[in-house]
């Protein structure tokens, strides 16, 4: 025992935080969500109400370092809390709080004074706009342009598939300042919707209705000069630097979806009877459950390891990409098996399984597709790059 180092238990404080967030979810957040219309994106007012409920638990400032005014919680502990919030709120909270963290870490004093109070109180929502209609995986080729005209930046271009895009007050937009420099010409600007209006088109997708995905159109949008967040040459780096963390949180989101599908299945197999017996007594149904449980546990362990490395300040490109690609593909497998276990009922909107499956199917694409994650792993393992 003296040499044992691995520890699969959470600390007492972590368990306590998890319990308190679970209580908030079951007593306040989930009942409120159940009163909303299914598959219709939450209104902005409702989204803000949910942020206000989560705010006292530190969900809006937890990951910001203490020296930047946050509570400096480590990523693993934050992820354990994040697991407990309802699936429909994960994107809203995750995306807006990482926007906030970007300002707290990289913003000027005046940007912090202007933007942080509303974000930290849950009165404002942020999002991050990288993807364009013709540029997805290859972020170095982004085209949305910005040039200085007097005291203002003039922004032109289109961003697409932007989470929180339908309801965000602030957007961190990756722009190209000098296209001859490709990736080295990129930087980011904060665009405030009220101050610098732009057009927003909601996008209809398979799942993830409360991701509020949108296309944003910038047509000669004028933005104050002082809204520059990451100057020319730092845009790509500032975007890529956060990816190890984002990937762990997408993995956590996927693990929660899969865990829910497994929980529903375990209940159902004991209630549903065929051939005069609960279907859970059939060996082939038990095999599906055993495969689902193995998948979910393996995925959680891989994800916790990456989060633990992040918490210790260690670089984890292989581990975070492994977590992201394994967890999101796993969630598709597990939610699909959960539908199989529920038979035809699993396909109906009376049951939650088809919704979990549709949401899971969305997660293999953002923050680097499964293929991109595997190529990052391949590059780290071999030292050979598949692309520039
Ligand atoms: C739910 C969701 C939320 C999102 N949220 C945001 C957001 O908040 N902000 C934002 O900016 N964007 C967001 N996106 C967009 C997302 O980041 C992009 O969809 C993603 O980067 C992939 O780009 P793409 O869809 O254009 O696919 P493409 O890059 O066109 O890829 C298409 C296919 O080709 C494969 N492929 C591409 N390049 C290679 C290669 N070199 N080798 C092998 N295969 C390759 C891909 O794996 C994929 O299968 C979101 C997307 C989704 C689905």
UniProtKB/TrEMBL annotation:
Q: Which UniProt keywords apply?
A: FAD, Flavoprotein, Oxidoreductase
Q: What is the official name of this protein in its record? A: Acyl-CoA dehydrogenase
Where does the Acyl-CoA dehydrogenase/oxidase N-terminal domain start and stop, copy by copy?
11-123
Domain named Acyl-CoA dehydrogenase/oxidase C-terminal: which ranges? 233-381
Q: Name one GO molecular function term.
A: acyl-CoA dehydrogenase activity
Pfam families in the record, alphabetically? Acyl-CoA_dh_1, Acyl-CoA_dh_M, Acyl-CoA_dh_N
Where does the source fall among the domains of life? Bacteria
Q: Which PANTHER family match?
A: ACYL-COA DEHYDROGENASE, ISOVALERYL-COA DEHYDROGENASE, MITOCHONDRIAL-RELATED
What is the protein's species of origin? Salicibibacter kimchii
Cofactor(s) needed for function? FAD
**Domain (Acyl-CoA oxidase/dehydrogenase middle) ranges:** 127-221
Record family assignment: Belongs to the acyl-CoA dehydrogenase family.
């Amino acid at each position: 025992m003296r040499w044992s180092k691995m520890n699969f238990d959470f600390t007492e404080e972590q368990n306590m935080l998890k319990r308190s967030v679970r209580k908030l979810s079951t007593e306040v957040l989930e009942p409120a969500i159940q009163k909303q219309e299914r598959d219709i994106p939450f209104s902005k007012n409702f989204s803000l109400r949910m942020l206000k409920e989560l705010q006292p638990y530190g969900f809006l400032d937890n990951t910001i370092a203490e020296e930047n005014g946050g509570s400096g919680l480590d990523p693993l502990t934050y992820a354990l809390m994040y697991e407990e919030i309802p699936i429909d709120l994960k994107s809203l909270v995750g995306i807006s709080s990482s926007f906030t963290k970007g300002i707290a870490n990289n913003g000027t004093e005046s940007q912090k004074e202007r933007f942080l109070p509303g974000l930290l109180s849950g009165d404002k929502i942020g999002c991050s706009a990288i993807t364009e209609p013709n540029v997805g995986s290859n972020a170095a080729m982004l085209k949305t342009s910005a040039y200085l005209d007097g005291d203002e930046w003039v922004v032109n271009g289109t961003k697409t598939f932007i989470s929180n895009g339908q309801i965000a007050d602030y957007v961190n937009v990756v722009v190209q300042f000098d296209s001859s420099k490709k990736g080295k010409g990129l930087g980011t600007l904060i665009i405030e919707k009220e101050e610098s209006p732009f057009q927003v088109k909601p996008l209809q997708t398979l799942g993830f209705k409360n991701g509020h995905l949108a296309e944003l159109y910038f047509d000669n949008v004028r933005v104050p000069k002082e809204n520059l967040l990451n100057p020319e040459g730092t845009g790509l780096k500032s975007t890529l630097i956060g990816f190890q963390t984002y990937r762990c949180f997408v993995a956590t989101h996927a693990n929660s979806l899969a865990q829910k599908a497994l929980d529903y299945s375990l209940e159902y197999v004991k209630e549903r009877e065929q051939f005069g017996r609960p279907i859970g007594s059939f060996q082939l149904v038990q095999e599906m459950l055993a495969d689902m449980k193995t998948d979910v546990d393996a995925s959680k362990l891989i994800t916790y390891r990456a989060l633990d490395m992040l918490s210790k300040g260690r670089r984890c490109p292989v581990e975070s990409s492994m977590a992201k690609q394994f967890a999101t593909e796993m969630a598709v497998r597990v939610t699909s098996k959960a539908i199989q276990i529920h038979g035809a009922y699993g396909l109906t909107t009376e049951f939650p399984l088809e919704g979990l499956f549709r949401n899971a199917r969305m997660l293999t694409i953002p923050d680097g597709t499964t293929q991109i994650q595997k190529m990052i792993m391949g590059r780290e393992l071999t030292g050979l790059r598949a692309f520039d």
